[in-house]
Sequence to fold (544 residues):
Amino acid sequence: MKRKLQKESFMQSVLVLMVSQVFIKILGLVYKLYLTNREGFGDKGNAIYSSGFQIYALFLTISSVGIPGALSKLVSERIAVGDYKGAHRVFKIAFITFGIIGFLSSSILFLGAHYISNYFLQIPEAELTLVALSPSIFLVSISCVIKGYFNGRENLKVTANSQSLEQFFKTVFSIIIVEFIAIISGTDTTVMAAGANLATTLATFLCFFYIYHYYKSMKKEIAYEIKNSINYRPTRIRKTIKQIFSVSIPMSMSAILGTINKNIDSMTVVRGLKKFLPDEEAKVEYGILSGKVDTLVTLPMSLNMAFATALVPRISFAKAMGDIQTCQKKISFSLLTTILVGLPCMVGMILFAKPILKLLFPNATSGSFIYQISCIGIIFIVLEQTISGALHGLGKMLVPAISLGIGVVVKFVLNTYLVPINPQNFILGGTAGAAFATVICHLISVVIEFMFLKGQINLKLSKKQFILKPIIATLIMACIANYTYYFSIPILGEKIALIIALIIAIMIYLLMIFILRILPKEELYKIPFIEKIYSICNIKTKKF
Fold:
């Protein structure tokens, strides 16, 4: 009997995750726009919401200990040699192990909410948000195990669908709960922020229900594979747990350090700003950084996250089969696509920072300079994502952790020094200093990671293809978009002019990718419908 489950191609996997991530970010932006512009919430509400959420994210990262990526790697390695039984056994042991860890983490966050909010964050209002979020740690931990199992089977649709479902319900519940609280409490910002985070817990419950139901629907197919498994080598439970942690702990260190990076801001920005600002103003400034700016800067990550996720099982599989050439091709293509995603997003957001904030947050437009500084880090963040995925797939899990760890230490030092400085005395003082420190953190991390990756596999990256052509395409896009915006303002007004300029920018940039032949044709043809579009357009240009 032929195996019913067919593996997705690399580009199909990437596209599924990319569409999912874009959908998730759009929904995330919707509820962030709603909350920020909601009377009684605003930047102060964002400060309470984000400070609690970042602590939750840290607990969540520790409790799930990199399990999606680790399980994806371990499962794909066993499936590569036909050991489906061993792959499923790893899954079952991981499910029980991380269920226990998740439950303990939820309990600690629930019981320690008062101490954390008052002493670590110095934002007492965040206590309710921590309590509201605590149950979801357990739910996410066991959901991550199931996601990791299906990722290792190269079935990324499960992860994509579950993430989309979770974000959809999170957005809907946030609006409903916050509106209900606003009606009965008279726009109490603290309770509204807690209600918005309660929506996260409800959404994670529904996400787990969906994933578990999908797993049950696949049990017959999985049972058939287990029955026909080959090369099964039974191991003791203790040894299997050790194997899981030996992969998951190094792999999770990057994620843990990433959340620590965010928590550095939550623990130092308000504290530092109080040196020259009143308490309420300090919270508002932190709300600008953690609410509006972080939301917008992380949007490009949704497009690129797909490559980082899809790379791990693909490269693990290729490496297990001894196919180094496939590793090189997948990594090179992913790096090129990452540059093509990150560069225009960075330049476009810097160029139109103020108009974007006016368009999206008409009731809270401040923060354009902080936004512009943060945008410089976009290209480093997305490259860091992709290179980390490649290194994880190659089994070099500690390298991304060490490189990001160095960056985080530098950020902490810069935050401690820059944030307490009044911006009137130094342009990079205050909240702008925290944004600048984040940029430096990711720059350091990506440089170290890339140097190590290049030494591991003989990557041959053309400067013309990877640097010169993307820069030219981006500059042409930026010039035309900028001219369109300022030409259209007297006729259409700022908001419509910005929307038209951004649409034209996307069209021009995509056209330049085709004209300059930046992406290899064989890779483009793997994207559904692209070959037909390419042949219809019949773009015949000389090599740049």
Summary: Confidence is low (pLDDT under 50) at residues 1-8, 539-544. The radius of gyration is 23 Å. The chain has 22 helices and no strands.
